[in-house]
Write a structure and sequence with these properties.
By secondary structure, the chain is α/β, with parallel strands linked by helices. It has 2 domains: 212 residues, 3-Deoxy-D-manno-octulosonic-acid transferase, N-terminal domain (Rossmann fold); 187 residues, Glycogen Phosphorylase B (Rossmann fold, 3-Layer(aba) Sandwich). Helices cover 46% and strands 16% of the residues.
Length: 419
């Protein structure tokens, strides 16, 4: 009954979903493309066995990289299908994998659209990245005998409370999963409390991502464009954080360091550039594709797919989403290239990684924009401290690798022999 009521709600919301796509398309025209897929009407069906991965958006798509590489080596006769929810996630899979994988939007969660999706692609196994529970999708997988696993699963206390408001629906969905690999023990406990069975703690796939050599080379080029001055990067910032940082940075603007802002969402690139200019900064943008002028004191990273390059170019990096209550973006990436990390108080998306990075000296915690700027200035003036944090970051990421192999061993139990 819980799923019946849920389905009725989904049906009632479909007109709003269409209006939402139109609204989002004002800033991102990509939302107008591939509408048919969102209702279960798909392109040509694959002619070879398929392994299906559902990474919702950008972060989950990037996290899947080491697993995709392992699956392609282990199952060369299969095609890998990515299903996305956002244009930025879809574009990320294009940038990372090109034509090596299939891709589509996951349909809205109606029973018939999900059955059409599964019958069209006929995957041997499905992998939901992190935590994205769609009850009708999960029910359709069970009905059509498609093994479905939740991998790289994380569940914050806040998200757990939200799922707990619908106990029958959540328990039914989690119970239908054939396996769950959680990032940490706290994630596993929350999932089990909500009804998940067969839960194992495998760590995060994000530790297994090797910084791409091409990105490191782009980072060297960024460094050349910016000149000899120190670089303080604020990466994957969320709405509201840039204003706080720009106001606090004013006290350091005359110190010669370059402030680099890379907003998390591309539709905000222009707005953040305008904000910095309105606050009196001399602004330059990555898209201008030239040397950063000596009088520019803010550089806007308005590009996608170059985060490793920005981290490699920086002397110190702040990981956005942590200054305000967004839960932090991925702090593993800067650690992996040896960039000292500053992180705010909101880390519920990466609690274990944040705690471990702080404990080993790879990261420093700050409580406000003023503390952030003070800590950044202190580190920019202390080469020995930066070198120690850099070494700690690389050691931290190396120590936590191995999730890919553990997840691959789990998947092998569900993929038919000889396929």
């Amino acid at each position: 009954m819980a799923r019946i009521y849920y389905t009725l709600c989904i049906l009632a919301l479909l007109p709003w979903a269409v209006l939402h796509l139109l609204w989002r398309a004002r800033r991102q025209p990509q939302y107008l493309r591939h509408w048919n897929e969102r209702f279960g009407y798909l392109g040509a069906a694959p002619t070879v066995p398929t392994l299906w991965i559902h990474p919702v958006s950008v972060g989950e798509t990037r996290a899947a990289q080491p697993l995709v590489a392992a699956l392609r080596r282990r199952y060369p006769g299969h095609r890998i299908l990515f299903s996305h929810m956002t244009p930025t996630g879809r574009q990320t899979s294009i940038d990372l994998f090109g034509d090596a994988v299939l891709r589509c939007y996951l349909p809205y969660d109606t029973p018939w659209a999900m059955r059409r999706f599964l019958r069209h692609y006929r995957p041997d196994v499905g992998l939901i990245m992190e935590t994205e529970l769609w009850p009708n999708l999960i029910a359709a997988c069970r009905a059509l005998d498609v093994p479905l696993l939740l991998v790289n699963a994380r569940l914050s206390a806040k998200s757990a409370r939200r799922y707990a408001r619908f106990p029958a629906l959540t328990r039914e969905a989690l119970d239908a999963l054939r396996g769950v690999s959680a990032i940490g023990a706290d994630d596993a406990q929350r999932l089990q409390a909500l009804g998940a069975a067969n839960v194992a703690v495998f760590g995060s796939l994000k530790f297994d991502i090797e910084p791409p050599v091409a990105q490191l080379q782009v980072g060297t080029e960024f460094r050349r464009r910016c000149g000899a001055r120190p670089i303080f990067l604020c990466a994957s910032t969320r709405e509201g954080e840039e204003a706080l940082i720009l106001d606090a940075w004013r006290s350091q603007a005359g110190g010669g360091a370059l402030l680099v802002l890379v907003p998390r969402h591309p539709q905000r690139f222009a707005a953040v550039a305008a904000l910095a200019a309105a606050k009196g900064y001399q602004v330059c943008r990555r898209s201008e594709d030239g040397t950063v002028p000596a009088d520019a004191n803010v550089w806007i990273g308005d590009s996608m797919g170059e985060m490793f390059a920005y981290y490699a170019a920086a002397d110190v990096a702040f990981v956005g989403g942590s200054l305000l209550d967004f839960g932090s973006q991925n702090l593993i990436e800067p650690c992996s290239v040896g960039t000292p990390v500053l992180i705010g108080p909101s880390t519920f998306n990466f609690p274990d990684a944040a705690r471990a990075a702080l404990n080993c000296g790879a990261a420093v915690a700050v409580a406000s924009a003023e503390e952030l700027v003070t800590a950044a200035a202190t580190l920019l003036a202390d080469a020995a401290r930066r070198e120690a944090m850099s070494a700690a970051g690389k050691q931290f990421t190396a120590h936590h690798r191995g999730a890919t192999a553990r997840n691959l061993a789990l998947l092998e139990k569900f993929i038919p022999a000889g396929r």
